[in-house]
Amino acid sequence: MEEIKSIEIIGFMQCKKCVKELPEGLSPREYINIEIGVNLDNQMLLNCVRHEKYVGAFTLKDNLTMEVIDNGCDCCG
């Protein structure tokens, strides 16, 4: 894992649909359900679990594809 250089967050990635549907009295942090994964093209994908939509895609500096594949996944038992 890369060293964290600053802990000051200047913005968050959020699903636009979730923000529009945000129930009164809840913060985005309490309502929005985002998952992060790495695809075979070495991109980090942010996905809204609630709406099954991609929020963002970012190409990673280091190629993690083989490392992820070699370590297996937690969904295959």
In short:
With 77 residues, this protein is an alpha+beta fold. The protein is built from three helices and three strands. It has a domain at 27-71.
Walk me through this protein's architecture.
The longest helix has 7 residues, at 65-71. The protein is globular. Strand 1 (34-38) and strand 2 form a beta hairpin. The protein has a domain at 27-71. It has 3 helices and 3 strands, in the order ααβββα. It has helices spanning 16-21, 28-31, 65-71; strands at 34-38, 43-48, 53-59.
Per-chain topology:
Elements: H1 16-21, H2 28-31, E1 34-38, E2 43-48, E3 53-59, H3 65-71
Antiparallel strand pairs: 1-2, 2-3
- Label the overall shape: globular
Radius of gyration: 15 Å
Low-pLDDT residue spans: none
How many individual β-strands?
Answer: 3
SS field, number of helical segments: 3
SSE order, as H and E?
HHEEEH
Largest sheet: 3 strands, antiparallel
| Strand numbers in spatial order across the main sheet | 1-2-3
Instruction: Determine the structural class based on helices, strands and strand pairing.
Output: alpha+beta
> Helix coverage percent of residues?
10-25%
Strand content: 15-25%
Provide mean pLDDT, rounded: 87
* Span between termini: 25 Å
Oligomer: single chain
